[in-house]
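Structural prep section.
Before we set up the soaks we want a predicted structure of the protein with magnesium ion in place, mainly to decide which crystallisation condition to try first. Input record follows.
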Amino acid sequence: MTAVRRLALPLVALFAGLIGTLIAALLMAGAEEDRRRTRFAGLAESSVGAIRSRMLVQLTLLRGAAGFINASDRVTQADFKTYVDRLRLEQNYPGVLGIGYSAYAPDRLALKRVLSGAADVDVPGVTLRPPGERRDYSVILFLEPQDRLNSQAIGFDMMSETTRRQAMEASAKSGLSQLSGRVRLVQEIQPVKQPGFLIYTPLYSAGRLRGWVYSPLRAHDLFGAIFYGADLSEIIVEVFDDKIGAEQLLYQSAAVERISHYRSITPIEIAGRRWLVRVTASPRFSRDTILPAPVGVGIAGILISMLIATVLLIQSRAARRTEEQVMLRTAELRAANDLLLTEALARQAAEAKVAQMQKMEALGQLTGGIAHDFNNMLTVVIGNLDIAHRRIGQPDRAERAIAQATEGARKAADLTQRLLAFGRLQALRPQVLDVNELVAGMADMLGRTIGEAIRLDTSLMPSLWPVCADAAQLESAILNLAINARDAMDEAGSLRIQTANVILGEGDLPQAESSATGPHVLVSISDTGHGMPPEILSRALDPFFTTKPVGKGTGLGLSQVYGFVRQSGGHMAIESVEGQGTTIRIFLPRHESSAPAETRGHRGEGRLPLGAGETILVVEDDDQVRNVSVETLRELGYQVLAASGGEDALDLLERHPDTCLVFTDVVMPGMNGRTLAQQVLERRPDIPILFTTGYTRDAIVHDGRLDEDVTLIRKPFAVAELAEAVRRMLDGSSR
Ligand SMILES: Nc1ncnc2c1ncn2[C@@H]1O[C@H](COP(=O)(O)OP(=O)(O)OP(=O)(O)O)[C@@H](O)[C@H]1O
Ligand SMILES: [Mg+2]
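Run finished without errors. Recording the tokens verbatim:
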């Protein structure tokens, strides 16, 4: 896993977490903003509401005073004082400097009357201030409570000042209470001046304007009282008269240092005058919102995202470690596997070595056996020939010696035959056979062979399938096995020969060399002899392996049988239990053709068939063998031509058109027997050709079977064999 791949998942998770956090924080910030806006609006609204309701109270207060004065024709200063004192203005209505009454004088004459009538209401010595001529006048007669400041107001003509005049005229005109614009109150003599304003309520008597009940109000004190106890830490309240501007400012709860975006301006209408209430969020309001939920959510989100990314990173590290460990284990396993493989190869090599050694041992045994036996036989042959040579003058002795030499040579020929059989190299003449018939035909001979002490039992399955095999070889195999059985049963016992049709399945014959399946004919030979221990059983098939005393067994019996059975496409199985007996089973494949089975008739003994002077051409590269053949044929009564090779032979044939038969060796230097035969047949299509060979792996024998059109006698051949073959061919019975 590369570093990039490993980091990808944690990074994606972190990124997604941060994006999610951002969105959540933004949503929350939006909600928080809405909430703050709502809260601010609430704060602003309640401020405005407080101002409005307080001003209503002021108007009510003034209307009360107006009602009091209107209620009688003559209200003295003392009456008014009593009324106002009872209201306890300072205590209950902070900011209200007092409640007063000013009389209206529409002209100079009326003014005189007012001033002179002042004494009537217990306000003596009132002088008009400021003096001067004006369109009309309004003289303050009462202003309670009559403290030092308020006393100064008595006699003041409010019509002399524009702002007051405007308010008074407006109220007189509408008949309703009227608020003045911003003024500097006459009472304002303290060093720190406050803006102020007045409220006028007109008084009428018999439809005529009589004057005004009024109240001068100090704005700071009034609004301070309105917001007294209210929490103004989060907002700054400013009240402007009619317009926003320093000149119009009536009240400011605190200096506006920084203009927040939470700001509202609300116009309110109070007694015919327009005020503007401006509310601004104080730094405190914003500060409260500095650590809002969105920030908390953001921080929490970032922390959680980082946590998840870290966990994923740790997991991916763990995964990488696991992967590395798996790779490590895999490498270890591979190494172990390689080791096992190496060991297996070494073992195979060792086994091959052992097998090779065993093979060499077997080969040694075989070679030794052959050498030993041949030596013995050659000793007999050479010794007897030597005797014959020396006793040539004594025909009897010489003849006996020659007969013994011939016997030795025959035994040697037998031995080669058996060796060829073991090597599966003998030339077979397979024919379709009924094995039951063959066994039945052998019964007499078998009985004689095994003796009377041993009982012979045959159990032959009816309708036995035919097989295709060399009858003489099969007979010899059965005889061999019967002799082995006899030898295993010292005194008495029974020999049982059985035949049966069997169908072999996979694995039925564990001892078989290759898998043997399908229909087979079984020939089983069992005895009740001493059996074989495993170590003998395992070697019984080896050539020259024998447990019999010297001179009694050659150790070639079973090997020969085995070679024949295998060459015939069959199988052989040996079962033996020490002390109980042995069963040897031969399986020959069923012959599928419908041709009727036949048995080979026994070779008749008798006189040799002789020639009648026919000319025979003998072709043989080995001088001695050629001489023997020539001599034998001449003795049999034939004219013989001899050639040492193919070329010579064709030459002779040319010169002797009376040649009746060609007898040729197969394996020869230069032109071989097969080629020669072709050439001969091209010249003389009618001439019979008899082959002879000492070895079967050659041009006319394939897979151990003779070609169809070939007649062959095996070397070494007996005189009778040659005589019979030649006669048969000349008589035209061979084809
Ligand atoms: N039916 C049997 N019961 C017990 N042992 C047997 C039987 N057949 C063969 N053997 C053992 O197997 C050995 C080899 O047998 P094989 O036929 O090859 O040779 P042989 O009988 O000893 O000699 P040969 O057959 O050449 O005369 C025998 O010497 C014997 O020990
Ligand atoms: Mg034997």
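Observations: Residues 72-225 form a domain with the Beta-Lactamase fold (CATH 3.30.450.350).
Flagged for discussion at group meeting.
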